[in-house]
Amino acid sequence: MQAREIRTWTTEEIQRRLEEAYREFFVLRGEEASGRLEDYNRIRAVKRDIARMKTILRERELSAELIEGEGDGEGTA
To answer: What is the fold, at CATH topology level, of the domain defined by 3-70?
Structure first.
């Protein structure tokens, strides 16, 4: 999945899919440890998807803080 696609999702949907990705990552790590994992590249892809989703959630959090901070009159000048 690409960041462009993730940005079209709602915050709640990103959080839901992030939980699913963490579950999948946990299962893949278990399969790797037991020697049953066939596609080792899937672990890498899931880790990157998790990172993308967390990055976009953080971007939204920071932009919300910036918008809230504009109205309180506290400047750094």
So the answer is: Helix Hairpins (1.10.287)
